Amino acid sequence: MDLLQIAIIITKIIVLTFLVVLPLVPVCVYFERRFSAVIQDRVGPNRVGIPLTLLGFKKDFHFFGLIQPIADGLKLFLKEDFTPAHVRKVFYWMAPVLTVVPALITVCVVPFGSPISLFGHCEKLVIADLDIGPLFVFSVASLSIYGITLAGWSSNSKFPFIGGVRSTAQMISYEIALGLSIIPVLMYFGELNLSNIVQQQADHGWLLLPLWGHDADHTLTSKLLFWFPAAIAFLIFTISIFAETNRMPFDLPECETELVGGYHTEYSSMKFAMFFMGEYAAMVIGSAMIITLFLGGWSIGFGLDAYVAKLHIGDFYFGGFIHMGCFLTKLIGFILFFILVRWTVPRFRYDQLMKLGWVVFFEAALINVFLAALIVAAPELKTAIIGIGAVLLVVLTAAVIWVAKVSEETPKVLRA
Amino acid sequence: MAVVKLQRPKLNFGEKIYFGALIKGFFLTMTHAVKSLLGKSAGAESLASSGLGVTMQFPEQRWDDHLPEYYRGAPALVTDEQGRERCVSCQLCEFICPPKAIKITPMEIPSDDPWAKVEKRPLEFDIDMTRCIYCGMCEEVCPEQAIYLRKDYLFAGFSRAEMVHDKKRLYEIGGVRVGLVNKWNELK
Ligand code: SF4
Ligand code: SF4
Prior knowledge:
The complex is a heterodimer of chains A (about 425) and B (about 190). Chain A has about 425 residues and is mainly α. Chain A has one domain. Chain A is built from 15 helices and 4 strands. In chain A, the strands form 2 sheets. A two-stranded antiparallel ribbon of chain A has the order 1-2. Chain B has 2 domains: about 15-60, no CATH class; about 75-175, Alpha-Beta Plaits (2-Layer Sandwich), CATH 3.30.70. Chain B has about 190 residues and is of the alpha+beta class. Chain B has 5 helices and 5 strands. Chain B is elongated. Classes of the chains: A mainly alpha (about 425), B alpha+beta (about 190). The interface of A and B includes residues 40, 340 and 343 of A. The structure holds iron/sulfur cluster (2 copies). One iron/sulfur cluster binds near residues 88, 92, 93, 104 and 144 of chain B. One iron/sulfur cluster binds next to α3 of chain B.
């Protein structure tokens, strides 16, 4: 590996992680506050800016309050960093770091745009072009469970502890649904490399919008047929991401009404800010994964991608940056959806959450795998075999639903 | 106590899978969002909103014109049409004030004063606005109708001392009340 390559990699890390993803976190916070305000007929933070009136000018610069997150950060930074006497110091200090770092590490496999090339040197807009993209994301992201669990345990008081335990159980349960739900997607693409998955979607239509780029291998019928398992997978994956990132309908580890602040009750100042950041970074990465797998990643769609990729000034092919802009637009759009969900859907009860994870999503994801397999393999099979497969699938589904129904507990009557 | 058994409502299939309710919820929140961006939220008109939601944005827009007749602002002392301070330092308000915000030092009016017949007036009259709860008890108890809650509400200071209104400030806020001031009737 020569020096140039190392320099390129370091530049990519700095630019993509610290100049693209990290700034998205305050942007999320800003949108969270403004959007929630608008939903509730309020105004939200719109004041922080450059106070020109102090210097004798007529008007202040507000920038719609876009500087509010900086003020928030500064406030958190200047607050007293209080460590209670009863905590386990080492783990207490380690926990916030363990929630932020995994979220930021997973950035490295997300493809931000198509390759750009300069002087004939082609460079992909992804930090590490791993061939096991989604697996890497899952394995690293699940490390953040340790952060939350350790925070809950080391705080050595009851509410954080309950929060930590809840989050452990919740995240482990939903990881199963998360992993199973994308198997159909991986089967369809025959690929675990996220860059290639996005490239395929750019060429042959997004997984959830397969309307262009038909050819012999990718006929419209086959794509439309696969739309159904893809939609189911999308639904399960998205909801599981909500649960994984401890976002609103599933934010039981930190629900204020029951657990004060959940696992971060005992934290203050920058350590609390790190939990906050970790949560939002996880949300950004989660949205990035959903977009990459189901909504075409950086692709603009409608067959425009090949054209954009060819745009160049002399030797400099800059289409990748346009694609990156498209990716970030989609990302912000999806983050807004996350926020909309948070301010719309009330929190689930814990047993409902567990039931949803284990009884509904786990089974649905499994059946979806079989369904997708049948649809993917259908062109190479005889009609009779497809028929048998379909019948088996229906029987299996019915059996699963029956078992779920039978196993459902009827509440015992306590008093006659 | 009689035991009331509550029946959980029976949900049909659509309600059980929850998606309909979710979509309905999204519509509801999005309608609110769009409406408040357009400044058309329910009640925006009557609440004099700033054009975003129903909120009035404070330093630029003020509630002043919308203050109701019965609004209770800062308590203040008033003088009558001849410039005489109405307060006779009876200290009833000091005693009634629930958070003990009022502190009065009475003085005797010297005999060569034109109002010598009144006998007493306050030498000092302090109301600590960090304590006052704007309850209006002082106004109600005053036998001389000398203290009133006016419509001023913007008080801020950098120290506790700044937040104590002394006699001069109280007369400044209160001003003059002329004519027959009858608390229980309309101001004539
Ligand atoms: S309004 Fe109430 S609290 Fe305020 S000074 Fe009068 S009696 Fe005291
Ligand atoms: S009750 Fe009225 S007259 Fe008596 S001290 Fe208070 S303000 Fe003065």
